[in-house]
Amino acid sequence: MKAVGARLPRYDGVAHVTARSVYVDDVRVPGTLVAKALRSPHHHAAIKRIDTARAKRLSGVRGVVTHEDVPNNVYGHLEALGIPADEPLLAENDVRYRGQPIAAVAAEDSDTALEALDAIEIEYEERPALFDMRNALDPDAPRMHHWGGVYPHFGPHNHRRVRKGDVEWAFDQADVIVEGVYRPQAIEHCPLETQIALVVPEAGGRLTIYSCTQAMYFSLGVVAAHLEVPLNRLKFVGGTVGGGFGGKVDTASETIAALLALKSRRPVKWRWTREEEFLASSTRAPWHIEIADAVTSDGWVLGRRTVTLHDSGAYARFSPYGVTKHAFHHTGAYTIPNLRFDGFVVFTNRVPTTAMRGFGVTSVSMAVELHMTRIAEVLGISPWELRLKNANRIGDTTANRVAMQDPSTVPVTLAAAERVGEKLGPEYAAMTADRRSGDLLPEHLVAQQAPEGAHVLGNGGGS
Amino acid sequence: MGLSDSEILMPASGADAVRAFGDGRDVTVFAGGTILMPMIAYRRYPQRARTLMLGRAGLNQISADGNVAVGAMTTLAAIAGSGVEPLAAAARDVADPEIRAQATLGGNLCAPPSRQGPRGDLQAALLAARAEVRCAVAGRERIEPIDEFLAGLDAEPRLVLGVELERPRRAAYSSQRRPHAHSYAVMAVACAELADGVRVAAAGVAKRAVRLRSVERALADGAAAEQASAGALDGLEPQDDALASSWYRREVLPVLVRRAITQLGGG
Amino acid sequence: MQLNVNGVSRAVSSPPLTSLLEVLREELAVLSPKHGCEQGGCGACTVLVDGEPRRSCLLPLAAVGDARITTVEGLGAPGDLAPVQSAFHDRYAAQCGYCTSGMLLAAHALIERKGGPVDRDEVLDALSGHVCRCTGYVKIVEAVMAASRGQVGAEPIEQPLAPEPSQPEIEIAGSPA
């Protein structure tokens, strides 16, 4: 226990304050080419023709790649977990978001690389685009994903479901039904270091990949899968990242840079501009969350119905995983025994969305906390006491039926109340996280409690 | 490529700059560089035969004894510290200290509206103060009222050499600012009391800054801040852009006008 | 032309409108100024020009002339940190480190200009063009204020709160402890 409670210097602190930390852009390899990508100017279009002949002939251009050059063009990050792939590395038949890469070039300098991009001819046929996820399920919505409007592979369902207890009973018993709609919006991670990769072909046939990734082994697997090379052909160098916040788990730059390095047999660096970062890097997802709670007039939340739409952008990436986490956390810090949750991964013509600081959870936490305050307002009771009453307690089970061993809602709420000088009723001020008993184990919560000492694991939210 | 083909001229005096500018056709004037350098980085530099860099041409003096004269290459930091209101307050509003130390009066005055929103942070202050712009057109120097200068800017290239103004007796400035580098004030209102009355101008409600003549007339008729600000939107149709909606601008402009008049000391 | 970087005159041959950032990084391999946005919006490329902070992405080489350029490499080195570097290190003001170079130089210039303790508002103004996405700025502002007061290296690394047990509480086979 040398570290807990101690103030330890950062291992990289001196390097940071003397600018000795080596980020990918600081790695200097003689003869490095500059990579640039040709990105879709359209939100949604068919690609009728790609002609790179003129670009390839320009002096100073050392490599031009399109979908034809990718050994395995369509690969998904979560394929290993049984989530099928839907996103091409380089667009082939269509583009589904503005900024989607279609071709990439490596050249002696950036002016030449940009000139080469201008020399690539692409014929598009624009299609209607969809930007509002609320319209994705309309019968006349533009069809922009080959799977349809939503991601269809949640077991037998086309959405993530949670079914717990008897939600019909809860709504029959309710004194009040409190409804709310919550719509957290997309957020760009905006790391100060933009997406960047440097790929160096080594003499033995290996590629050394300097990467800004947050997820080294994800990236290793993704690059190997697209290039159809064994993992031992790739040596990843990472660990010094100029900010990520979830935005650097998507293997955004390494694969295309590697493809260009193989093509040109030269080191290739691809650093996105700030504009590219804003235009084409993934964002946190926008969500549309509808909650209806069955509530008693004295503040018990008996049941909850939730419909959530998650804007995945043009492709699935990690969204099914994010919505599953969202489903598991959709009661937040509170115990609600009767649940019906339906969460959809919706496709739109926006940039694909990804993790950001609490993937799938921050959105629903925000919705739940606003909703708890709304319930307190409707009932005219203290929002503190409403929260404490319904707080997670030892032995309660989560939405996905995990028995809680050490929930923190009660001590944290009490500490917050003390800090802001909130006076609570004596029965609330005396609460602990202990197992529910007495008045705080009302009839409707008896059945949902796990047996004492049990550690019940969920089976994936009932789907 | 626009940049590598552009011949770079670095005149050593204002007179040299006027000669080098010529009729201004096919010339990019490079003052502080805070707008042009990003255009270079993003390959959007104007494709023109010559680039006229003014960094060594002088033109960076402020004289404020009696009437005020400010050279075109005076930085916004220098204007912010000059005590010449309402110009100083408007200059303090721009971006951050590092940008203000590089951005210039001339560049700010000539900046075209950006794709994201209006630019030209000093325009309202200069309009309110009835500044006159000393500029060169086709080798000849002229002085023109700021209104005419702004109206003619797109039609005929001018090389700004400086501005001159009568120091206002009282001045006020009120703005709605986004506190971030390169984020310009969403809207600003400047007032200046001159020998013949109070002038009021607003930025951020049209492509370039405009005078609020209804407000000026109301003040001349003795209206108080509340009544005078009611006419703030007369003849204006603010647009939506990335900084703010038309609705927001309509709601906030009268508030800024009222604050500025109150700050001026009644009205 | 010659460029005076950290007290050393260096020959450079980039075209006159090349940004100082490009010249420093690509021609001279002075790597502390970072590419953050290349439009003056983030402050990651800030260097000192005659002691005053400037965005190197916005400065054309032609405008630099014989001015003295200072980068973090010229501020202090491991074992010989400038006060502001020590304060950033002591007080955990650098997280990912990418904005740190620009922050350090803008802060250093502020402290030099003031020549004594700086207050919070002065720090906020001086760093208002500098974006940090990791820290929320609190530790950065504290570090600058501490550096200006000479409170550097004064705060020792705290001892663990609990007495050190004679035996490891949990032994994991193969663990270095």
Lay out the secondary structure.
The complex is a heterotrimer of chains A (463), B (267) and C (177).
Chain A: H1 13-17, E1 33-39, E2 45-51, H2 53-57, E3 61-65, E4 94-95, E5 101-107, H3 110-119, E6 121-126, E7 160-164, H4 167-173, E8 176-182, E9 187-188, E10 196-201, E11 207-211, H5 216-227, E12 234-237, H6 254-264, E13 268-271, H7 274-280, E14 283-284, E15 287-295, E16 301-313, H8 319-328, E17 338-347, E18 353-354, H9 361-379, H10 383-389, H11 409-419, H12 426-429, H13 443-446
Chain B: E1 7-9, H1 14-21, E2 27-30, H2 36-41, E3 50-53, E4 62-63, E5 68-71, H3 76-80, H4 87-92, H5 97-100, H6 105-110, H7 123-128, E6 132-137, E7 140-145, H8 146-152, E8 159-165, E9 170-176, E10 187-194, E11 197-203, E12 210-211, H9 213-220, H10 225-229, H11 246-265
Chain C: E1 2-5, E2 8-11, H1 20-27, E3 46-49, E4 52-55, H2 61-64, E5 68-70, H3 83-90, H4 100-114, H5 120-126, H6 138-148
Parallel strand pairs in C: 1-5
Antiparallel strand pairs in C: 1-2, 3-4, 3-5
Helix pairs in contact in C: 3-6, 4-6
Explain how this protein is built.
The complex is a heterotrimer of chains A (463), B (267) and C (177). Chain A has 463 residues and is of the alpha+beta class. Chain A has helices at 13-17, 53-57, 110-119, 167-173, 216-227, 254-264, 274-280, 319-328, 361-379, 383-389, 409-419, 426-429, 443-446, and strands spanning 33-39, 45-51, 61-65, 94-95, 101-107, 121-126, 160-164, 176-182, 187-188, 196-201, 207-211, 234-237, 268-271, 283-284, 287-295, 301-313, 338-347, 353-354. In chain A, the strands form 4 sheets. A 7-stranded mixed beta sheet of chain A has the order 3-5-1-13-10-11-12, with helices on both faces. Chain B has one domain: CO dehydrogenase flavoprotein, C-terminal domain (Enolase-like, domain 1, 2-Layer Sandwich). In chain B, the strands form 3 sheets. Chain B has a 5-stranded antiparallel beta sheet. A 4-stranded antiparallel beta sheet of chain B has the order 9-10-11-12. In chain B, a hairpin with a 2-residue loop joins strand 10 (187-194) and strand 11. The model of chain B has no long low-confidence stretch (mean pLDDT 91). Chain C has helices at 20-27, 61-64, 83-90, 100-114, 120-126, 138-148, and strands at residues 2-5, 8-11, 46-49, 52-55, 68-70. Chain C has a 5-stranded mixed beta sheet, with helices on one face. Chain C has 6 helices and 5 strands; from the N terminus they run ββαββαβαααα. In chain C, helix 3 (83-90) packs across helix 6 (138-148) and helix 4 packs parallel to helix 6. Chain A binds chain C through residues 1-10, 12-21, 23, 25-26, 28, 189-194, 240-245, 271, 273-274, and chain C through 25, 29, 31-32, 34-39, 41-42, 44, 71-73, 75-78, 81, 85-86, 88-89, 92, 94, 96-101, 104, 131-134, 157-162, 164-165, 169, 177.
